[in-house]
Specification:
This protein is an alpha/beta fold.
Length: 285
């Protein structure tokens, strides 16, 4: 079966560290802020930031809600204290709940009481799909988190380090202007399964490497359940589709997977390209 290219741990680390140093110098900032989720990606980036610019130039923020796993709350603190970086922990349930209650009031106001009554009856009948609303609310939480992170970055003249990996970027598995935002993306060119192997060489705590990836935006959420594939299979598919540019028949020979499943990933790539681009604008003006 196809295997992803093996990355040299030392060379990869050196390249990322040089990149971080260069971006800090070119941006004339004092340091870098990072959202610490307690997960693998943010942990790796935090470790690399410390090696690149020193613990005194990093500010970590852990933003949680009632759906954040207790394990993640514990792990983020362990990492921040191990790295000796300044950090702040913020619970945003009240804020996000007020925000969600505000924006999910779909009633209308009108000068004509009878028209208002009719319109609101129609709105109440046209319920939003439960899953779609859950996604919208999860994305809202993610954008609230990023707004807070940028607030602290602005206060301190810091850049924001994003923690999105190549697997997530290619299929759009991130919130636009939420967890996908950032001024630098140190691990954006590394697949998730490659990161797990690098993490072992970089002495990232095993309990963080081995726990299931999750955003904690709703109860019981895990990345792989939501994506519909394990990262191991997803990354091989992405490598064959994007890097090798193979057709479906060739991919099926490499991986025992149906054309329908392959096309699901192709659709995710195509439908989410807009997330990787600046907003479009008219040409020729």
């Amino acid at each position: 079966m196809i295997e992803l290219p093996k990355l040299n741990p030392d060379k990869t680390k050196d390249k990322i560290i040089d990149f971080i140093k260069s971006e800090k110098i070119e941006s004339s900032v004092k340091g870098i802020a990072i959202g610490l989720s307690g997960g693998l990606d943010s942990t790796i980036v935090a470790y690399l930031l410390k090696e690149a610019i020193g613990h005194e130039n990093i500010f970590g923020v852990h933003i949680n809600t009632s759906t954040t796993p207790e394990e993640d709350k514990k792990h983020f603190k362990i990492i921040a204290e191990n790295l000796n970086i300044k950090y702040k922990e913020i619970a945003i349930d009240n804020l996000s709940n007020d925000f969600i209650n505000l924006v999910t009031d779909f009633s209308l106001k009108s000068d004509n009481p009878e028209s208002e009554k009719v319109a609101n009856v129609l709105i109440n009948k046209r319920r939003y799909d439960e899953y779609i609303q859950k996604i919208a609310e999860g994305n809202l939480k993610s954008r609230i988190r990023m707004s807070i992170l940028y607030y602290y970055a602005n206060l301190n003249n810091f850049l924001v380090a994003g923690t999105t990996n190549r697997s997530e970027l290619l299929i759009g598995y991130f919130t636009k202007y939420g967890d996908g935002a950032g001024d630098i993306l140190p691990i954006a060119n590394i697949y998730k399964s490659q990161l797990k192997k690098l993490a072992m060489d970089w002495n990232i705590p095993k309990e963080i490497i081995n726990k299931p990836p999750r955003a904690g935006l709703w109860d019981g959420q895990t990345d792989e359940d939501e994506i519909g594939f394990s990262y191991e299979i997803l990354d091989k598919l992405l490598h064959l589709i994007v890097d090798k540019k193979l057709d479906n028949d060739s991919i099926s020979k490499e991986i025992n997977i149906s054309t329908e499943e392959i096309n699901k990933i192709r659709d995710k790539i195509d439908n989410n390209k807009h997330k990787l681009q600046f907003p479009s604008s008219p040409v020729g003006i």
